[in-house]
Specification:
Keywords: Cell outer membrane, Membrane, Signal, Transmembrane, Transmembrane beta strand, Transport. With about 325 residues, this protein is mainly beta. The protein has four helices and 18 strands.
């Protein structure tokens, strides 16, 4: 009995020691808000930051699976591997959550069903910043329940990564990632594709993403360019109509191009961006009989922002022109 107790005590000590090894210095993280980069410790909102280390240690295979692990988030997933997901906060609708990619609005103008059509692979995410609670005054429409800002990696240097994986139901995935640049000017290009016959009838899918971004450091600031394209084709068995609607089919596309500028002049910070997002959604009620019902929707969002902030002491004062 004494030996058993000693073993249990030793095992508990080892687990405690291991648990203490994984630490995240949130004091050094700056939350990329709409107006100003705010140190995490100074933010007055309920903020969660998912780091690249958290993502690497997670068993998740897609961004929506990563978000599903955050307390208070309601992820309504349809299909596997990020085919389609609705995101809500604490009982909100999926139209009341603002989704940003490097600070650029990604919400679909037609429906929140397609807002997660992001042309970025999970391995290329630097961190995910999440605001829980109303933030419409600061971020505008769609931010009634919360904000999700996905920040991608912009590491200087030269690197090429090629990956492949496979599984049951003729599931496969391929990925390509290349980075080229230095501290002054950096570029990153990633492309990936995934396909499967589905785990049940008419749940097959094909997903293709391409994403490019560059960053040019200028005096006391930077210029950022990003462009991406996402395409999904999938069987939508029971996605929308009744369970008897087993032949539904959908094809979606999302394109994004944006240019962002940020510069600091002492206590004055200026930021601006222009962007274009195109969304396309083609739906068939019966993929074997396209003439029964077919719907095609195309939406274009064009926008821009100019923001400035001036900080006295520790308290930021924000001015906005639109």
């Amino acid at each position: 009995m004494i030996k058993k107790i000693g073993s249990i005590f030793l095992l508990g000590s080892m687990l405690c020691a291991y648990a203490q090894e994984k630490t995240t210095d949130i004091e050094s993280i700056e939350f990329q808000g709409k107006f100003i980069s705010t140190p995490y410790k100074n933010a007055n909102q309920n903020i969660t930051v998912i780091t690249k280390e958290d993502i690497a240690h997670s068993p998740a295979k897609s961004i929506d699976e990563v978000l599903q692990q955050v307390p208070g988030m309601d992820i309504r997933r349809r299909g596997a591997n990020g085919v389609q997901s609705d995101i809500g906060f604490r009982g909100s609708s999926f139209e009341q959550v603002l989704l940003l990619l490097n600070g650029i609005r990604m919400n679909d103008s037609q429906t929140g069903h397609n807002s997660m059509n992001i042309p970025v692979d999970m391995d290329d995410v630097e961190r995910i910043e999440i605001i829980k609670g109303p933030a419409a005054r600061r971020f505008g429409q769609n931010a009634y329940a919360g904000v999700i800002n996905i920040i991608t990696k912009t590491t200087p240097g030269k690197r090429v990564k090629i990956s492949a994986d496979g599984g049951d139901f003729e599931t496969y995935g391929f990925g390509f990632n290349a980075q080229l640049g230095n501290e002054k000017f950096s570029n990153a290009l990633q492309a990936n594709s995934a396909s499967s016959q589905g785990y049940m009838y008419n749940t097959d899918y094909e997903i293709r993403n391409v994403f490019y971004q560059s960053k040019l450091n200028i005096k006391n600031g930077d210029l950022k360019l990003q462009a991406g394209f996402s395409e999904k084709k999938f069987g939508a068995n029971g996605f929308y109509a009744s369970k008897s609607a087993t032949e539904q089919y959908e094809e979606t596309q999302a394109s994004i191009v944006s240019l962002a500028h940020q510069q600091t002049f002492g206590a004055l910070k200026l930021s601006s961006n222009v962007y274009w997002r195109r969304g396309q959604d083609m739906y068939l009620y019966d993929r074997n009989k396209p003439d029964v019902y077919r719907n095609m929707h195309i939406g274009n969002n064009v926008g821009g922002e100019v923001n400035s902030s001036y900080q006295w002491g520790w308290e930021p004062r924000v001015l906005e022109w639109s």
